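re: ur question from earlier - yeah i can do the single chain one, its not a big deal. heres the input i used so u can compare w yours
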Amino acid sequence: MNKIRIKNIEIYYDDTQNFKIDYIKNVINNNYDLFLSMLGESKKLSLTPTTEDGVVYISDFDDAFYKAVNKIFNNENNKKLLDTPDLLPAFYIEYLVRKTPSNQTSLVQPNFNIKDEMFYSLIAYIYFEKTGSFDDFVNYLKNKQDMNKILEWLQKETRFDAYNYLLEITINYLKQNDFEFLDNISDITSMILMKSINNIPTQENEKQIELPTITIQEFDNLFYEFLKSINAPKSWEQMYDDLKTNNRISFEKQVDNPDHSKCYRDDNNILRILISTDGTIKSFCSFVHEFTHYVTMQDAVTFSQFSIEEFPSIFFERISAEFLKNKGYQIKIMDKVIKDRYQNNFDIYINLLPIFQDIQSFIKKGPILRTDKIEFLKNQFRIVQETKEKLIKIWKQNGKSISDLSFLEQPKIDIPSAVDKECDSLIDRFIQDGLLVMNGYQYLLDTFLAENVLKKLKNDPTIISRMINITNNLRSINLQDILIEFDMSNSFSQLKETHNQKIKRL
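and the output i got, formated as tokens:
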């Protein structure tokens, strides 16, 4: 009697079965969890007759395998599974989540509480139910050599359903607090885009803004003065002292401009502040932004505060720049802070533009259709071609030589394939960094809110004290409270009307 072991499963056989033992080992390795379920607690399998307790005897391996697969997969529960709404999109998204390295910015997390082996076998089961037969499925399980083909089929069948599912959960995620912003997302993002374009640094004005350097001691003194200038509560100064005493403020050298400053909880759930610094006074404004987060994060922030998390920080960041101007620092510091904020908003907007557009379209017209995307792209190519032909005609009529129109040359592409590729790219962005879509939404909305409140500061000396109160109590405040507190309930409708008037003038 011979014996081999595959993980926790023991297989007994005699010399006459040597020729097929490699085949059996391969099938068991490919379906290890299935065999564990089949063998139960014994985990012992014999290919020769035996009376030993706890050993499962199999006279015909292929027949036994077929029956085991049939029992587990080809049953009423799995038949019902096939009728589950949005099953394929759910499986496709689950597949993408499972193959993507764990990422805290992912919008979706694993949803099916089953091991990989069973999960991928279920996908194959659905594939063969729709394209082949149950016998084909059983034969596939023995070698599992066509999984890529099955996954390509799944992607083709469900990519747009999966994308619409992700759009829908994003919209529902945002709607939970009756966000008026969502209904006006087109107008607000257009406004942010135009202001960003007008304010983002150019090479010329970037050179003009050479900010003064700052030492740690100067930084420290300035922050105490800043707290005093806004009549911050004593608790804020105590928080700052505590941060310093416990070394929970760290500075890192800023490289190639991106600012990675953040207020965060470490592995021990302790709040810390990291400041990316280029050694200039700008790091002071970055710290004020993150310190404001530190105040709001003292207590757990619930979903109700999601849309306004950045609002106090953006407000006090701007106030800190005004403070520096009043201290005698040049006004260009204020300009730098504003331009950096708009540069950040511009980058967010441009990166998320396709998703924002599809969110708007989904809200107005429902799910995004592949056919509409294809027709849109065809129209874009058609417009370019018609423009080229009109230019040629005009130049000929005016007796002018035809200028170089190479910039209007259209690449030869497979439009349906290009549409599918873009959809795949957007899905991957959702899977990998879906929460960044939410964060982008936050920054755009909260910049809008902060700017409206800052406009009121000139005529209302209570604004800063009210903002301090909001910062201290953010955990119990929502977007609607902010709109009421600062009399901005009509801001969205006014914005929409202004935007519509501009469009009419154009």
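The beta strands are 2-6, 9-13, 44-46, 56-57, 249-253, 262-265, 271-277. not sure if urs matches, ping me
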